[in-house]
Amino acid sequence: FIEIASTGGTVIEQLAEFNNLDDTQDQYIRFDIPVASDVAGQTVRLQLRTTADLSLDTHFFFDSLSLDAVTCAGGAPR
Predict the structure, then answer these.
(1) Which whole number is the average pLDDT over 33-57?
(2) Cβ neighbours around 6 below 10 Å, total
(3) What is the dihedral of CA 20, 14, 49, 5, to 10 degrees?
(4) Pick from 20, 35, 48, 54: CA 20 to 30 A from residue 76's CA?
(5) pLDDT score recorded for residue 19
């Protein structure tokens, strides 16, 4: 899961979800995720969360992660 959370850890918005049924094995995934404007002015956390059970060995790898924040003044991105 990729989520926006409050500084206390409460999930504000779930941005994306991937699972082992997605055909992404050995692939790089590039994606853009817009965030709702109701988090404007807040200090938030970008949270990467996983769940797994003990029956199968699962690995997640991040080669790189970048975050671009765009602010809007008067409704226009800048």
Answers:
(1) 79
(2) 13
(3) 180
(4) 48
(5) 73
Where does the pLDDT of residue 61 fall: very low under 50, low under 70, confident under 90, or very high at 90 and above?
Answer: confident
Kindly report the pTM of this predicted structure. Answer: 0.64
Alpha-carbon distance of 41 to 48, in angstroms, equals 21
Q: So what's the pLDDT on residue 78?
A: 46
Task: Please report where in the chains the tokens 């956390």 appear, as a residue.
Answer: 45
**What is the spatial distance between Cα 4 and Cα 25, in angstroms, rounded to a whole number?**
25
What single string gives the DSSP state of each residue in 9-22? S-EEEEEE---TTS
Residues 18 and 24: beta-carbon distance below 8 Å: yes
